[in-house]
């Protein structure tokens, strides 16, 4: 860092003291080495550690189950999901749940961006050999979006795309309104979202990463993947900030 830049940063820090987006602890007195790490400009070390202290997960479905040598669970060996790989930042512990719920609020955009950047870092390290062309968020139905004013999957996807150096494009559309997935029992969720999405022709021949905030049963991401493949996408990878277990009551509209 050049001295002048350092001075400007120090002045900005005094005017707008940096703090952890999740616990609001001041980051002003973290060592410079820590603050040179991008992740530690958003979250304090304790929150970052809790958020990313994840179990070993199945590379196809995200289940924290016994895995085969190539990192896939028994269920996926029998019947794999339609996507190539799933990358999940966190389990649905208290901190991740709080972060995801806050990212859904209009004022939660900085949290959504920070989560998206971490997800991008993780995708890069988990899929080093994959050259992605596009990042596509799971779309909200326009009616719900009009009520909420913001789509947290869209915000997260923007930051994930930025971190990966890949374009983000909204090439998935909801073509019918669906019930909130978290209001339905797991066995009814696939039918609720099957055929609910359509992909635009821009996905043809592209390697696509779909981004959502929470994954529970995977029904929404499966329906999105099928729409992308039907529109000619070459490969589809999926990612989410948090994976809720099927038994977890999902406060956010995870699916
Ligand atoms: Zn914190
Ligand atoms: Zn699996």
In short:
The protein is of the alpha/beta class and 255 residues long.
Can you walk through the features of this model?
The chain has two domains: 1-53, no CATH class; 59-243, 3-Layer(aba) Sandwich (Rossmann fold), CATH 3.40.50. The chain is 39% helix and 14% strand. The protein has helices spanning 3-15, 32-35, 39-42, 45-52, 74-78, 94-103, 109-126, 142-148, 152-164, 189-193, 219-230, and strands at 86-91, 134-137, 167-168, 172-174, 197-199, 207-215, 235-243. The longest helix is centred in the middle third of the chain and has 18 residues, at 109-126. The chain is globular and about 55 Å long. The structure holds zinc ion (2 copies). One zinc ion binds next to helix 4.
Question: Main sheet, how many strands, which sense, barrel?
Answer: 5 strands, parallel
Lateral strand order in the biggest sheet: 1-7-6-2-3
Q: First CA to last CA: what distance? A: 44 Å
In the predicted model, the low-confidence regions spanning at least 5 consecutive residues are 248-254
The averaged pLDDT comes out at 87
Under the CATH scheme, the architecture of the largest domain is 3-Layer(aba) Sandwich
Strand content: 5-15%
Structure annotation, total helices? 11
- Principal-axis shape: globular
């Amino acid at each position: 860092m050049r001295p002048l830049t350092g001075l400007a940063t120090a002045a900005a820090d005094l005017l707008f003291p940096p703090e952890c987006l999740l616990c609001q602890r001041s980051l002003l007195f973290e060592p410079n080495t820590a603050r040179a790490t991008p992740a530690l400009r958003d979250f304090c070390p304790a929150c970052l550690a809790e958020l990313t202290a994840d179990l070993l997960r199945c590379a196809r479905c995200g289940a924290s189950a016994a895995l085969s040598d190539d990192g896939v669970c028994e269920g996926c060996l029998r019947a794999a999901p339609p996507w190539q790989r799933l990358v999940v930042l966190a389990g649905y512990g208290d901190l991740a749940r709080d972060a995801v719920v806050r990212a859904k609020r209009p004022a939660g955009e900085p949290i959504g961006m920070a989560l998206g950047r971490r997800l991008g870092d993780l995708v890069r390290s988990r899929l080093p050999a994959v050259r992605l062309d596009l990042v596509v968020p799971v779309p909200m139905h326009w009616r719900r979006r009009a009520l909420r004013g913001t789509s947290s999957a869209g915000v997260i996807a923007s930051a994930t795309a930025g971190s990966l150096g890949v374009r983000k494009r909204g090439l998935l559309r909801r073509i019918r309104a669906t019930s909130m997935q978290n209001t339905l029992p797991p066995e009814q969720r696939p039918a609720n979202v099957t055929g609910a999405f359509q992909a635009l022709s821009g996905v043809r021949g592209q390697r696509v990463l779909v981004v959502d905030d929470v994954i529970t049963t995977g029904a929404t991401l499966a329906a999105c993947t099928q729409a992308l493949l039907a529109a000619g996408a070459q490969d589809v990878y999926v990612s989410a900030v948090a994976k809720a277990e099927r038994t977890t009551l999902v406060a956010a509209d995870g699916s």
